[in-house]
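To the wet lab folks,

You asked to see what we're planning to order before we commit. Fair enough. Below is the target structure as tokens, and below that is the sequence we designed to fit it. If anything looks off to you, flag it before the synthesis order goes out.
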């Protein structure tokens, strides 16, 4: 089994995930044999200390995947913001309208 510190870290990582990712964790657990899931009105609970190494490994891999995915998306979003600020400033729309009106006015002369 795993030591308490790693299990606590795994538990905290899962609790911090969005509901969508928590459902995926539940799906991983549900597809494993002999994983006791306890459900009540507050949600589904599992005693991580009762899980075998393979199941804990699968959960750790998934939490790492989510962590990496979140970091990658944050980098992409930051880059997107940089590009928008550089090439599409907020005042750009007004400038284009004025420029377009000037072009139409000079063409009509």
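Sequence we intend to order:
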């Amino acid at each position: 089994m795993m030591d308490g510190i790693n299990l606590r870290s795994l538990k905290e990582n899962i609790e911090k995930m969005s509901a969508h990712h928590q459902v995926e964790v539940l799906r991983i657990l549900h597809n494993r044999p002999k994983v006791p899931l306890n459900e009540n009105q507050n949600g589904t609970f599992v005693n991580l200390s009762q899980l075998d190494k393979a199941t804990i490994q699968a959960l750790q891999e998934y939490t790492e995947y989510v962590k990496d995915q979140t970091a990658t998306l944050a980098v992409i979003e930051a880059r997107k913001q940089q590009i928008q600020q550089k090439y599409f400033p907020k005042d750009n729309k007004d400038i284009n309208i004025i420029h377009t009106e000037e072009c139409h006015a000079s063409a009509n002369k």
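Structural context that might help your review: Residues 4-107 form one domain. The beta strands are 37-40, 43-46.

Thanks,
Computational group
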